[in-house]
Amino acid sequence: MTTPFRHTTPPSPKAAEGRVAEAYAQIARDFGITAPPTFVVLSSAPELMLPAWALLRESLIAGPGDRTGKEVAAYGVSLANRCPFCVSAHTVLLHATGDHALAERLARGERPESDVHARVLDWAIRTRVPGADLGPLPFAREERAGYFGTVLTFHFVNRFVSALLTGDLLPAGAQRLRPMRSLTGRALSRTVRREAVPGASLPLLRTPAEGPDGNTRENAANSPCEGPSWASGTPVAPAYAALRTAALTGADLLTPDERSLVEAAVAAWDGAHPPVILRGYPHRRELPAARLALLSALAPYRITADDVAAWREHAVEGDGTDKSGDGEGDGRTDRDLVRLVAYGAFLAVERAEATLNFSPAPARHI
Questions:
Q1: CATH number (domain holding residue 54)
Q2: 31 and 147 part of one domain
Q3: 3-state SS string for the chain
Q4: Does the annotation count 86 as an active-site position?
Q5: pLDDT at residue 260, rounded to an integer
Q6: What is the predicted pLDDT for the residue at 339?
Q7: Which of 39, 134, 136, 364 has the highest local Cβ count within 10 Å?
Q8: Higher local confidence (pLDDT), 269 or 206
Q9: pLDDT per residue over 198-208, tens digit each?
Q10: Catalytic residue among 86, 164, 202, 348
């Protein structure tokens, strides 16, 4: 059977328990798709799956701002990051909002007719470039949590999707056909147009802890922190903070020197896509973990089976990845790969967030 997954074999959603099973139920109810590959691929690392879903839900689905506008923003980010899976997904979701003409204009590579949507699209595309002049916000200031959260969600999602999924949203590439895009969107329309209650995903982020009496209770110390100021007072803030914390723990899969190399390269990145012949990237045989992390940040679609195989084979005791301790790489699990990709991806998200924080307020209320 064909599978949308590359490099990993995620656990079956049917076998999910606890918080992961709760997340799948919420995804089906609020996103309209039962066990979408976007989240199944993260389920090897539930500590990433749960906050990734929470951030998407609380920004795109339940956050402040027009759903169509936020779908245009997500489309623009996905276009800038060269993620065909997500470009197709947001085209379908625009059909689901009822904006069929807009969805098909974007599918043809044309600009939106609406000036507001055109400005949202341009703004979202430019967020890939660190330090870019984004100009005035193309939406009201009180909608920042929804729009910023959506953009940062898909700077993260695009990267792990490009690394770990194929490019086809529908079997046999059926998303290329206009009738299939429209039909799929219409099937989701009731869910997409239903109002979602903000904050419903946050209970998924609280981790249980065992007390001195042996009973399990919610651990307040592990509850999400306040989060960034641009989302202050909204559920987007703790969702973003939880994802950031979970993603950056992937640094423990690298040596200190590898981390320094990757972080310096991402800090110096100008937003450009690399040439066909990769130069200046760590070699897969010498520094395979650093190569995967850096590609995840800058060009995840360039990760190959050879890159992953070299990383799995290159077990070094004490580098944080060989849990078996035998030097053979048996400990390099799918969870490790998901965490490593997420680490690199979130370094790029942080560059995007820094750029967004310098965005001036809108010239007028929109």
A1: 1.20.1290.10
A2: yes
A3: CCCCECCCCCCCHHHCCHHHHHHHHHHHHHCCCCCCHHHHCCCCCHHHHHHHHHHHHHHHHCCCCCHHHHHHHHHHHHHHCCCHHHHHHHHHHHHHHCCHHHHHHHHCCCCCCCHHHHHHHHHHHHCCCCCCCCCCCCCCHHHHHHHHHHHHHHHHHHHHHHHHECCCCCHHHHHHCHHHHHHHHHHHHHHHHCCCCCCCCHHHHCCEEECCCCCEEECHHHCCCCCCHHHCCCCHHHHHHHHHHHHHHHHHHCCHHHHHHHHHHHHHCCCCCCCCCCCCCCCCCCCHHHHHHHHHHHCHHHCCHHHHHHHHHCCCCCCCCCCCCCCCCCCCCHHHHHHHHHHHHHHHHHHHHHHHCCCCCCCCCC
A4: yes
A5: 97
A6: 98
A7: 39
A8: 269
A9: 999 999 998 65
A10: 86
Residues 182 and 287 in one domain: no
Give the chain's domain count. 2
Residue 307 domain-assigned (yes or no): yes
* Full-model pTM: 0.90
* Percent of the chain's residues with pLDDT above 90: 78
Domain-located, residue 159: yes
From 139, 172, 201, give the residue that closes a domain.
201
Which residue segment(s) compose the domain that 175 sits in?
20-201
Look at residue 216 and tell me if it is in a domain: no
Per residue in 25-81, pLDDT (tens digit) is: 999 999 999 999 999 999 999 999 999 999 999 999 999 999 999 999 999 999 999
